[in-house]
Each structure stands twice: as structure tokens, then as C-alpha cells.
Specification:
Blueprint: E1 2-6, E2 27-29, E3 31-38, E4 43-49, E5 52-58, E6 70-76, E7 90-95, E8 98-102, E9 108-113, E10 122-125, E11 132-137, E12 140-145, E13 156-157, E14 176-179, E15 182-186, E16 192-195, E17 212-220, E18 226-227, E19 248-254, E20 259-261, E21 269-275, E22 278-283, E23 287-292, E24 300-306, E25 318-320, E26 323-330, E27 333-340, E28 345-347, H1 353-361, E29 369-375, E30 378-385, E31 390-395, E32 400-404, E33 406-407, E34 413-414, E35 418-424, E36 427-432, E37 437-442, E38 456-459, E39 470-479, E40 505-511, E41 522-525, E42 536-544, E43 548-553, E44 560-570
Antiparallel strand pairs: 1-44, 2-38, 3-4, 4-44, 5-37, 6-7, 7-8, 8-9, 10-11, 11-12, 12-13, 14-15, 15-16, 16-20, 17-18, 17-19, 21-22, 22-23, 23-24, 25-26, 26-27, 27-28, 29-30, 30-31, 31-32, 33-34, 35-36, 36-37, 38-43, 39-42, 39-44, 40-41, 40-43
């Protein structure tokens, strides 16, 4: 006698087990979970496919040659150009070695070179009036006025503060951020961080943005001895302590006063990130949280600190809804992802041991970079590993991970090319990591910006009957049949043409050994437009003990999996 069972595992997350010989690795590629019903005793989830992307702009020089891959996007909001849509938000991007302003009509202006080391850049905005945008690239900080029209805009290098303990060596920042009208940066291979004066740079004495103006004195004491400028006395003497008429003073800029030492641990600061009213100071094996306080000479104070976790690869650290999320390093390895705020530290990869296991086996993590965006209630943290050709995405709303991927020029699954997400001009913009192309997410598209198909794939865990053999009579996928936006096309004689996507195909593979090997591809249709009752079903699928399923769609159509129904017959022991 045959039995039927609903396979809710079809809408599960990604959960790869170390003992793959026993349990199949669950996996979602370019699909993510979404809760549609949730009560105290019941949760119903579906699998939704990621959106496609549309090419908005390709940035090229006078010879129509692209400038290079994107290294970062930023939206300026505090003091935008008055000539631009009555002072609305304005998009900036670094492609190759150049910084660009990009307008809502997709015209753009090249502001200048920020130097090119192929690494993602950091942006920070001073706020105030006038506001400046700062860019950290290749151990330098550059600035440009956010209110300067294109013809007047100048990208300038900021003189950096002198490294504490030296007299003439400037710091070498690798990250910058802003908090309460100050620019804050680290110093490569050191454990101090430095901050600018309030509201600087602001176009006035930009060369002294990180410097403090002090007054020093010289005079003759009553006993006939001398105090010279070389004695560096920065307070005025009492009136009865010097010979009248001998007191002189001069003002001097100092570049090693606006700094603090992350003294909690002896490791170096790899980078700094800000969110709301706090700073996350990340070392190779430590984390310190500083909050802002209203003190001109000591503006930051520690609230949280730990030596259990740090961050070795700072480009993996981004602000996600007021939390700083990063690829962690610790005494036990470099294989976990953490989230921190002003008062707590959370390991968000704890629910994904497969990810931590994968990270521990990666040969190159130093080129990892991350970004985030929020859409339709989902808050995504996305981290890519270009050398490893992998992109992983964490959905805070579902506490689940999935994989994302783009087919490259060789039609091989690579990292997800769309990178550095920002919300601007009413859209979510990203840019290609490898090309000078600006993109935006397009919920009406089911292909990548380059026309490549998006492979959406779900691999389930194993289905067992006390580890006895079962005959798989049929598998029916409950999904959004009949919703393809593509209609059949015909030639001039009325004969049907080969039209991709008008009757989409779902591919099925089955494993009978727990996911070790997979059988031949089997095909079923998803239904033409309007065939909402079309049944996606496969019959007579074979016999096995540890059964797992893999389904995928590459046609340019929406694909949502609600659940699946399995019909089987028990075979006994």
C-alpha cells in the first residue's frame, strides 16, 4: 500500500553536515526562505528566488574602455549639490582607480583618482556645513566637497596625523568611518585609532583636519632662568612667576593629539566601523566597543570588550541595521561570522556549522568583502570570497544562510557579481565586482544584468523510513505554476518559435545514498502562462533507503516552492 507525506524539507535552509556519508547536504542556491504563516505552534515557509538585475550604466573612458571593477558605492545625503534635484541624495562610486558622481539620469562625472590597489574602499561623510566626503584607499584619505559643483570639485589628499611616538611619520589608515561629525581611522599594524576635529574636513584648514592648534610660551623667570619654545610649555605662567615684558607665545599645529589607544588587548587594530552612536574597534583577536560622549578631549569611552573574537579581514565588516557584522578571527580559528552592537556579541553562524567548516577549509579568505541591503522585510548580509568563487548570504529575518552565484564568461558558477548595495533614487543599486557596470535589483527580471540565466537550486536532506528501502512512486512539487511572464512567439507563417521561458522546465535529480551520488536528470514542466493548476510531477523514481532530492530552474521565470508531496511504498526491512 502506498503512502503520501508532505516534504516540508523542500523549503528548508542550507545545512551541510560534516558526515556527508550519512546525511545529505541541504543547500539553497539563489533561493531564500520566507515565513508566510507563524503561530506559537506552527510555522509555514516558502522558498523564494532572488531577483534579477538590470544594467543601469557602463562607465567608460574616451576610448570606450571600462575603468575597472567596482570598489565601493556610497550615497551622500547630508549636503548634496543644490543643483541636483533640489538637493536630493547623490550616488558616488569608485570604479578602478577613479571616483565618480552618478546622477539619477545615469550621467556621471569623474572626480579624480583615488589610486588603485583593487581592494574595496571605505567612505565616510563629515556632516555639518559644508560637508565633505572622505575616501580611504591605499593607506591614504582623500576628500571632496559634497556641495562643490562638478566644475569646482577637487579631490584632495588629506594630510594625515603623525603616528604617536614619532615626530615625522604619518599614520597609514586602511579603514575610515564617521561618528558625530568626526572622521575616525586606524593605523596599519598599530593599536591606536585617530579622529579628526569636529566637523572637519570642512574646506577650512583641511590640511589640519586631524591636527590640534596649541599655544606654547617662552619667558624669563624671576630667578633669571629661561623657558624657551623648545621646552613646549602649553599653559600660560602665573603673572608673578616671570619678568614683566618677557612673555611671548606662538600657535602650533600638532598632529598626534587626536588619538586613543585600544589598550584592552595587545593585538593590532585591523579596522574600525561605526553604527548609531558607537564605534567597533576590531583587532586581530579582540573587539572593543566605544560610545560617543560629549567631551571635546576624550570623545569616546569603552562599553564592551572581549578577547574571544576579533576580525582579521576588515572588508568583511559592515553595518547591518545598526549592528556590525564580520568574519571573525579568534584563538580557535577564522571560521565564524559574528554580529555586535553597543552591548552584545552574537555568533550568527552558530546555526550553520557547515559554513564554519567550509570557511576553515578555505585557502584564501584575505580578499573577502561584504555588504548588505534590506528588501521586503529581509535584511541580508552578503560576503564574497573571489579567490574561492563563493558568495554566502545571511538573512537576519529568517536566521538562515543561502548561497548566491552568477555565471561568468565561461558559464561557470562564480561569486555573485552584484556588490556594494546601496539604496538611492528609489532603487537598490549594486555594481559589478569585475566590471564598470552599475546595476539595480529588478523584481520583474529573472536573469542577471548580463543576460546570463540565474540557476536556482534546492537540495534537500534525506528522507528515510527507518532506513528501510522504499519505492518512490511519485514526487509532486507544489510551486507557482503558470506564472511565467513569457508568451509563446511565432514566425511570420504562424509557426511556433523556440521561446525560452514560455513553458519553463524544472529539473530533478535523486540520490539514493544520502547525497553521495546523483542520478540522471529528469524533467517536468512548470506550466505556460495562466496554467495555474499545472502539476509539476515525476513518477516511478526508483528504490532506495536514504533518498534526497535536488530540483533546479534556469528559465527566466519566477519560481517559488511552497512544499512537495511524496508518494511511496514501504519495502520492509
Amino acid at each position: 500500500m502506498s503512502s503520501e507525506v508532505i516534504l516540508n524539507s523542500f523549503t528548508g535552509g542550507t545545512s551541510k553536515y560534516k558526515d556527508a556519508g550519512f546525511i545529505s547536504n541541504e543547500e539553497c542556491i539563489n533561493q531564500f526562505q520566507e515565513t508566510v504563516v507563524e503561530t506559537d505552534t506552527y510555522t509555514n515557509k516558502i522558498l523564494r528566488s532572488i531577483e534579477g538585475s538590470t544594467l543601469a550604466l557602463t562607465l567608460v573612458n574616451n576610448l570606450s574602455v571600462e575603468y575597472g571593477g567596482c570598489r565601493g558605492l556610497y550615497v551622500a545625503k547630508t549636503s548634496p549639490l543644490s543643483s541636483h534635484e533640489e538637493g536630493g541624495e547623490l550616488l558616488y562610486g569608485v570604479f578602478g582607480e577613479y571616483l565618480f558622481r552618478i546622477y539619477s539620469d545615469y550621467s556621471y562625472f569623474k572626480l579624480g583618482s583615488v589610486s588603485n590597489n583593487d581592494e574595496p574602499v571605505d567612505f565616510a561623510e563629515t556632516g555639518g556645513a559644508p560637508a565633505f566626503l572622505c575616501i580611504c584607499s591605499n593607506y591614504q584619505v582623500l576628500s571632496v566637497g559634497l556641495e562643490d559643483e562638478d566644475s569646482l570639485a577637487t579631490l584632495e589628499y588629506l594630510p594625515l596625523p603623525i603616528r604617536t611616538g614619532t615626530t615625522d611619520t604619518s599614520i597609514r589608515p586602511t579603514t575610515i568611518c564617521n561618528l558625530n561629525y568626526r572622521i575616525i581611522c586606524n593605523d596599519y599594524q598599530h593599536d591606536y585609532f585617530y579622529y579628526s576635529n569636529l566637523g572637519k574636513p570642512n574646506g577650512v584648514d583641511n590640511e589640519h583636519a586631524f591636527y590640534v592648534l596649541k599655544t606654547r610660551y617662552k619667558y624669563t623667570k624671576n630667578d633669571g632662568s629661561f623657558v624657551t619654545y623648545d621646552d613646549n610649555q602649553y599653559y600660560a605662567p602665573s603673572e608673578d612667576s616671570y619678568v614683566e615684558g618677557t612673555l611671548e607665545s606662538e600657535e602650533q599645529w600638532f598632529g598626534a593629539l587626536c588619538f586613543q589607544k585600544a589598550e584592552f588587548a595587545s593585538d593590532i587594530i585591523t579596522g574600525i566601523r561605526s553604527a548609531d552612536d558607537y564605534l567597533a574597534i576590531l583587532g586581530t583577536a579582540s573587539l572593543q566597543i566605544y560610545v560617543w560622549q560629549d567631551n571635546e578631549y576624550n570623545p569616546f569611552i569603552t562599553t564592551t570588550k572581549t578577547t574571544e573574537v576579533g576580525c582579521k579581514y576588515i572588508k568583511s565588516a559592515v553595518n547591518v541595521g545598526g549592528k556590525i557584522v564580520f568574519l571573525a578571527s579568534s584563538k580557535t580559528g577564522e571560521n565564524a561570522v559574528y554580529s555586535v552592537d553597543a552591548s552584545s556579541v552574537t555568533r550568527i553562524s552558530k546555526s550553520a556549522p557547515w559554513l564554519e567548516n567550509t570557511l576553515s577549509r578555505m585557502s584564501v579568505k584575505s580578499d573577502s568583502f561584504a555588504y548588505s541591503y534590506t528588501k521586503d522585510g529581509h535584511q541580508f548580509y552578503i560576503i564574497s570570497f573571489p579567490t574561492e568563487n563563493k558568495t554566502y548570504c545571511y538573512d537576519f529575518s529568517e536566521d538562515e544562510w543561502h548561497l548566491r552565484s552568477t555565471r561568468n564568461s565561461k558559464n561557470i558558477l562564480s561569486i555573485w557579481y552584484p556588490s556594494f548595495a546601496v539604496r538611492c533614487y528609489g532603487k537598490i543599486y549594486l555594481a559589478s565586482y569585475y566590471e564598470s557596470k552599475l546595476l539595480y535589483l529588478d523584481e520583474n527580471k529573472c536573469t542577471d544584468y548580463n543576460g546570463k540565466m540565474i540557476q536556482r537550486e534546492r537540495t534537500t536532506g534525506i528522507t528515510i523510513n527507518n532506513f528501510n528501502n522504499v519505492i518512490i512512486r511519485s514526487l509532486e512539487l507544489i510551486c507557482n505554476s503558470g506564472t511565467t511572464p513569457i508568451l509563446q512567439t511565432y514566425d511570420s507563417e504562424g509557426k511556433p518559435l523556440s521561446t525560452e521561458g514560455y513553458n519553463p522546465t524544472v529539473m530533478l535529480q535523486i540520490s539514493f545514498d544520502g547525497g553521495q551520488t546523483w542520478g540522471t536528470e529528469r524533467w517536468s514542466k512548470l506550466g505556460r502562462q495562466g496554467q495555474y493548476d499545472y502539476r509539476v510531477r515525476w513518477n516511478n523514481l526508483g528504490v532506495g533507503r536514504k533518498v534526497a532530492f535536488r530540483v533546479s530552474v534556469t528559465d527566466p521565470c519566477p519560481w517559488i516552492i511552497a512544499t512537495a508531496k511524496l508518494t511511496y511504498t514501504k519495502c520492509g526491512k
